[in-house]
From TrEMBL:
Subcellular location per the Swiss-Prot or TrEMBL entry: Cell membrane
Keyword set, alphabetical order: Antiport, Cell membrane, Ion transport, Membrane, Sodium, Sodium transport, Transmembrane, Transmembrane helix, Transport
Membrane topology type: Multi-pass membrane protein
GO cellular component: plasma membrane
Sequence intervals crossing the membrane: 6-23, 30-50, 56-78, 85-108, 114-134, 185-207, 227-249, 270-291, 303-326, 347-365, 377-400
Protein known as: Na+/H+ antiporter
GO MF annotation, one: sodium:proton antiporter activity
Reported function: Na(+)/H(+) antiporter that extrudes sodium in exchange for external protons.
Domain Cation/H+ exchanger transmembrane: start-end pairs: 22-401
Annotated source species: Planotetraspora silvatica
Length: 529
């Protein structure tokens, strides 16, 4: 690789990180600014051509991004909304594929029906990265965030399966085999789940036994690629395999060493930042090569096609989401005579969070060269992706503020649950300290015991305060050594209580992560001292 090629290779991530730094510094949405910056940069004279290679996107960028999102998600919260997530990740994707395909075929007669269905599958999956980032920052309720996360994790698998079937039919010039497609999806999903669980189970057992946090996180970096490659090798869904592995390991992360957890958070935050910056910049940079492929097209007519498909993608989601959210509750209300309907504001926000992303573009660029109307499909995909990112992405924060949605009640409930859990955990820590003293572990230095007791009591009070209602040479063990040893025992007892309360659904995963981080940093401080 010569110096010129190397500089071009580094220009993309360096420029993307620079734009991201500006966005984060000013409190803007980094994905949206990256897309706009890429759009502008693609027309700058002398700008290198950065082609979006679908194989690199799907096998290099996508696995760690999905894995990181799954690792940070909550298995218990996802399980609570599994019906809604399933209807969005499978039902909405298929609904989009069929309806967009039929309308695209009617709108563009020269686009064969199978090719139109492929277009529908390409633009069907959402990428809620920017919506989730904005929603968390502005206080979108946790359940809405969980639904968006679950949909974003699983809908790629449905879309890519429908895409493969439609592309094969379009290239062969035959009708799509719906029965075969259904069987392929069931095998792909089922095998992906089994492979993801098998890999995650082995890795979780290994991570629990590793005290070296660097090695543990080195192994963790290999998991998404291992899960993806293993599943794809047997023609299963690599996407589902990666997601399942991430969800399982995220649920088990509280049982690994404190060093592994602290380093894991930093490692995946950096990986997310770099990968997402490059991916969203790449989306914007594709405008020039895509427009060059439309040299023989009537741009006015093509522009009309693009606007119609963009509006269709927005409207179909707005129609499907209320049905998905309200229909199960209506059935439950009839059966159980009681069911709380979700706030209509949350339903509106979920309906509007339909931004498309890099998976759609990667699928479009992966179309065979002999695919019917390939350049037109590429442009229409790009128009839907950019349209949803800019129109919905820019208006999403305004809509949250306009509707007055917040998670204040959830945060108060979390603080209350955390305070109660802190008190229970501190009681367990004090009980463990008394056991150690009774066993003769500590013969001297009563002040150390008092310090430990005082610290446990202060920890128990800290949660209530958040709510506003709180008021040697001879070879012998030194006081500081005893303090560190005993405090580690107490921290272990506290962690066990928090994990048990999380598993019993008495505190949420976010509460567990928050208190675990506090305990981990304290243990790290003990280790450093």
């Amino acid at each position: 690789m010569d110096i010129s090629t190397a500089s071009q290779f580094l220009l993309l991530p360096a420029g993307a990180l620079a734009v991201t730094a500006v966005a984060r510094g000013r409190g803007w949405s980094a994905p949206l600014l990256l897309v706009v910056a890429g759009l502008v940069a693609s027309f700058v004279p002398g700008m290198p051509s950065y082609a979006l290679d679908p194989e690199i996107v799907l096998s290099v960028f996508l696995p760690p991004m999905l894995y990181s999102a799954a690792l940070d998600s909550s298995y218990l919260r996802l399980r609570a909304v599994k019906q809604v997530v399933g209807l969005l990740a499978v039902g909405l994707v298929l609904f989009n594929t069929v309806v967009i395909g039929l309308i695209a075929h009617a709108l563009i007669p020269r686009l064969p029906l199978a090719a139109a269905f492929a277009l529908g599958a390409i633009v069907a999956p959402t990428d809620a990265v920017s919506a989730i980032a904005v929603g968390r920052k502005l206080g979108l309720p946790r359940k809405s965030i969980t639904i968006l996360v679950g949909e974003g994790l699983f809908n790629d698998a449905t879309a890519l399966t429908a895409y493969r079937v439609a592309v094969a039919a379009a290239v062969a010039g035959t009708a799509a085999d719906l029965f075969g497609a259904g069987a392929e999806f069931l095998y792909s999903a089922g095998a992906g789940i089994v492979i993801g669980l098998a890999i995650a189970y082995v890795v979780a057992a290994l991570l629990r036994r590793l005290s070296d946090s660097l090695i543990a996180n080195g192994i963790s970096l290999l998991v998404p690629y291992g899960a993806y490659i293993a599943a794809e090798a047997v023609h299963a869904s690599g996407v589902i395999s990666v997601v399942i592995a991430g969800i399982y390991l995220g649920h088990q992360m509280s049982r690994t060493s404190y060093g592994t957890r602290i380093l894991s958070g930093a490692v995946w935050k950096v990986a997310d930042l770099v990968l997402e910056s490059i991916v969203f910049a790449l989306i914007g940079l594709q405008v020039r090569p895509i427009l060059m492929g439309l040299a023989d097209e009537n741009l006015t007519r093509v522009g009309v096609y693009a606007v119609v498909l963009f509006l269709l993608a927005v409207v179909l989601r707005a129609l499907w989401v209320p049905i998905t959210v309200y229909a199960p509750r209506l059935i439950r209300r009839v059966r159980e005579r009681e069911a709380r309907a979700p706030a209509w504001r949350n339903v509106v926000l979920t309906s509007w969070a339909g931004m498309r992303g890099v998976v759609s573009l990667a699928a479009a660029f992966g179309l065979p060269e002999d695919f019917p109307q390939r350049n037109l499909v590429l442009f229409l995909t790009f128009a839907v992706v950019i349209g949803t990112l800019i129109v919905q992405g820019l208006s999403f924060p305004w809509l949250i503020r306009r509707l007055g949605v917040s998670n204040d009640a959830e945060r108060y409930s979390d603080d209350l649950a955390e305070a109660a859990a802190q008190q229970a955990a501190s009681a367990a820590a004090l009980a463990r300290l008394e056991e150690l003293i009774a066993d003769g572990v500590l013969d001297v230095h009563e002040e150390v015991v008092e310090q430990l007791r005082s610290r446990a009591e202060r920890t128990a009070l800290r949660g209530w305060e958040r709510l506003g209602g709180g008021t040697g040479l001879d070879g012998a063990e030194t006081p500081s050594t005893a303090y560190r040893r005993l405090r580690r025992e107490m921290l272990t007892a506290q962690r066990e209580v928090f994990v048990r309360l999380r598993d019993e659904r008495r505190i949420d995963d976010e509460v567990l992560h928050r208190v675990m981080q506090e305990l981990d940093f304290e243990e790290a401080t003990l280790e450093r001292s």
